[in-house]
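Q: My labmate handed me this sequence with no annotations at all. I'd like to see what the chain might look like in three dimensions before we decide whether it's worth expressing. Could you predict it?
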Amino acid sequence: MANNHQVKAKKHLGQHFLTDESVAQDIANTLSLEGYKHVLEIGPGMGVLTKYLLDKPIKTHVIEIDSESVDYLKANYLNLANRVYEQDFLKYDLTEIFGNEPFAIIGNFPYNISTQIVFKTLEMRNQIPEFSGMFQKEVAQRICSKEGSKVYGILSVLTQAFYDAEYLFTVPPTVFNPPPKVDSGVLLLKRKENVTLPVNEKLFFRVVKTAFQQRRKTLRNSLKTFNLSNNLKANVIFGKRPEQLSVDSFLDLTQLIENDSTN
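A: Here is what I predict for the chain of 263 residues:
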């Protein structure tokens, strides 16, 4: 269990310490360990998840921003000591650790940076074949949701363009110190075999983000900034709202915009 200092140290990061050993073991067991030899745990705190990772036939690395947690890990997990990195995951160049080698990501992620962790993973997807972790439940559900869902949005489409996303199980507040006010959810992302988009990637991201910024409008109205030709706007797809489009449909939409004579 986390001591009082570490609870205070992590509170500003949105971190809640997992105290249930069985839940920690269940999270560690979500990884297949296939296609990589390294795993990076984000925000290990006191190492409740870390110790189960260390039992597995894989090289575990941890990245932690709190200096006292780092000291604790180095003192109590001697076989991990030279693979504890006191860094900010969002700012750190992970090639300093892994070079070009593939690695998995796992963790009980701080709520307030969890979506940023996903976006950094997407940027590094060529090196990250697998990603498992605990989020605020509604965020985990959003990442894994399909078209037609009220929570389907930017995070859903961009993540699922590159990964198969599966919501695994729900974790109650009672297994954390301090307990959060909401349930948590554990998900698994497994990278798709073909991670190269058939369209311009920057345009795809822009189309998805612009469409969902006005999610109640039809695409004909929400995508006005693209200066689409009248001929293209007549396509039936532009009469739909963004939550009605699957990931493949968004790729088709991006292709149409890319090929439009006015762009």
